[in-house]
Amino acid sequence: MTNKPNGVLYIGVTNNIGERIKEHKLKVYPKSFTARYNCDKLVYFEEYDNGLIAEKREKQFKKWKRNWKIELIEEMNPNWTDLSLNWNLNFNKIRE
After folding, report:
1. What is residue 77's predicted lDDT score, i.e. its pLDDT?
2. What is the pLDDT of residue 88?
3. Closest Cα to residue 7, out of 69, 75, 84, 83?
4. Which residue ranges of the chain lie beneath pLDDT 70?
């Protein structure tokens, strides 16, 4: 997640990406990193069937140099488009 192209980068893992994106966009946790830095645009994601593998990848990705992360994002999403815009997320309901 980011706030703008080449801006602040946030890396996280979840078992429900749609709900997690809504939480970031609605700033459900106002003191969180994403709320403080307005990281509400999904510019890159990977899917895994196994949560442990996803968590391992998250830790690996967080150790990368910033320019490596940017290169990966731009390889898949050169315009830094918010990939969640067309997901028809129901913002009237969030998980509890």
Report:
1. 97
2. 73
3. 69
4. 89-90, 92-96
Is residue 83 a contact partner of residue 24, using CB atoms and an 8 Å limit?
no
**With the CA atoms of 95, 57, 3 and 15 taken in that order, what torsion angle do they form, in degrees rounded to the nearest 10?**
-10
Domain tally, the chain: 1
CA 95 to CA 89: how far, in whole Å? 12
| Full domain range(s) for residue 65 | 1-96
Can you point out the beta strands (E) in the chain?
Answer: none
How many helical (H) and strand (E) elements, i.e. helices and strands, does the chain have?
A: 4, 0
Total number of residues shown for the chain: 96
pLDDT given for residue 96 in this prediction: 65
Q: How far apart are CA 60 and CA 58, in angstroms?
A: 5
